[in-house]
Structure formats: structure tokens, C-alpha cells
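This entry is passed on directly below:
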Amino acid sequence: MENLSTLIHLDYTLMIVAIGAALLGTVSGALGTYAVLRRQSLLGDAISHAALPGIAIAFLLTGSKTPLILVLGAAIAGWLGTLLIMSIVRLTRIKYDSALAIVLSTFFGFGLVLHTLIQRTGNANQAGLDTFLFGQAATILERDVLTIGILGGIALIVMLIFWKELKLLVFDEGFAASIGLPIRTLDVLLTSLLVIAIVLGLQAVGAVLMSAMLVAPAVAARQWTNRLRLMVFLAACFGAFAGVSGTIISSTASRIPTGPTVVLCATVVVGISIAFAPNRGLVWDRIRQRRNRRSLKTAADGLLKQSQQRSK
């Protein structure tokens, strides 16, 4: 009976972690599509690192590790960091990549300093805050899954409500501005949605690897289609698949962390897509090149025979 109880508990824990990872992969994959298409893939890295001081400040102010409070602190810090990047690019001559590096390193360094101060306070309640740095998906609880589901669902609903506007922002920002769309407001809205997707995954994947969860499913989906609607759907599916498969793989082997395993599964999906996607895949491209060479060789041989016959 003890073995049966342990097995049921393990299966239930695995189910909770798998559901949380699948929801995280779905949200980050769908919203990460816009970051990839706008060539802002590193923005996810900046937001995830900028969120660390927000977590520390939220804990210092409240003394609580309630997921909603920490996520709120991370979201505010990540949002402010992203707005700072946009302001630097708009108001100065500093390029986007330089502003990204400055804000990322500054916020992340500030977060590490605050994290060290919290450790030195001797507050026993601070144990577990380091999971937001490197991630620990195995510690996800029902309340965490509920938080991911509710906030992630709200982000996806907002994305669908502003589907046309965000589509114009991504593909033709100049035309969107010419018809009177508020470009800056839409930019802030899209950034806010990305912030939500990133801060939801900090506990599972960590600040160091969260950008991969945002970018990898979208990159994989891009290899299979040229349509935005299908790309968003495929990215969500790839993200969910990586979350579930990574959770299952890490549970079958001892001492393998779940978060990095999820990221590795997403990377495998990217590799398969790059190799075997019909339109962009390297394998199919090589096959097409060989067919074209054979066709050209056959045509050249035919022309050579015709010229030889005419000369005779």
C-alpha cells in the first residue's frame, strides 16, 4: 500500500508539472512568434534578466513567496527594463543591441546584489528564491499552474483581440502608422504580453534559460509555414510538446533538472524543423538542388545532342 501511495503521488506530481510546463510552452511559444518576426529575439533575454530585481524587491517589501506577488514584482521590473531600452533607443544615438546589453547587465547585476542581501538577512523564508535564477520546474504546485493558466490565458486573449493591429505592427509598421494606429501604444502592449509570458516561466525555467522557451518554438514554427496564424498555432504546439516531453524525460532519470530538459527538447524540435521542414528544411533543399542539377544536366545533354545532330 505504501508503494501504491508513493506511485500515485509521483504520478500526480508529474501531471501537475507537465500541465504547468505545457501551459508555459503554449503561452511563450505563441507570444514569442512576434518577438522572432520583429527580430527582437534577445528582448526575451533582457526581460527575464531584468525581472530578477523585481522578485527580490517584492520579497523584501512583503516577506512573502506567494507566486502572484513575486510574478507581479517580476512583471513590473521586466516591463520597466523594456521601456528603458525603448527610451534609450528613441532618445539617444545608442543602437538597440547596445541598449539591450546595458539594461540586461545592469538589472541582472542589481538583482544579484539584492539576492545576496536577502541571503545575509537570515530570513528562513527566503529559501527557494534562487529557483527564479536557474529554474526548478519540479517545485511547481497547483497554485502555480493556476497562476500560469489564468495570466497566460489573459495574455493570449488580448493577443487575439488585437490580432490585426499586432499583425500590421509586425509586418508593416509604416503602413500601420499611416492609417492612424497608435504604434507606441501597440509596441508597449506587445512588450507587456511578452513580459507576462516570460515572468510566468521564471520559476520553471529560470531567468537564464527563459529566452530559449520564448524563441525556440517560434523559430521551429517559422520553418514550416509563411502564414502568421499557422505559425502562432504551431509555435504554441511545439512549446507545449517541449514542456510535456521534457517533464517526462526528466522524471524517468534521476537528478536531471526539468527546466533545462524542457529547453533541450525545444532545441531538438528546432533542429528537426531546420532539417526536415518542406519549404525551408536543409534536407529537402538538398534534394531539390539535386533534382535541379539532374534536370539541368538532362537539358544540357539534350541540347548537346541536338547541336551534334544539326552539325552532322
About this structure: The chain has 14 helices and no strands. Residues 2-37 form the longest helix (36 residues). Confidence is low (pLDDT under 50) at residues 1-9.
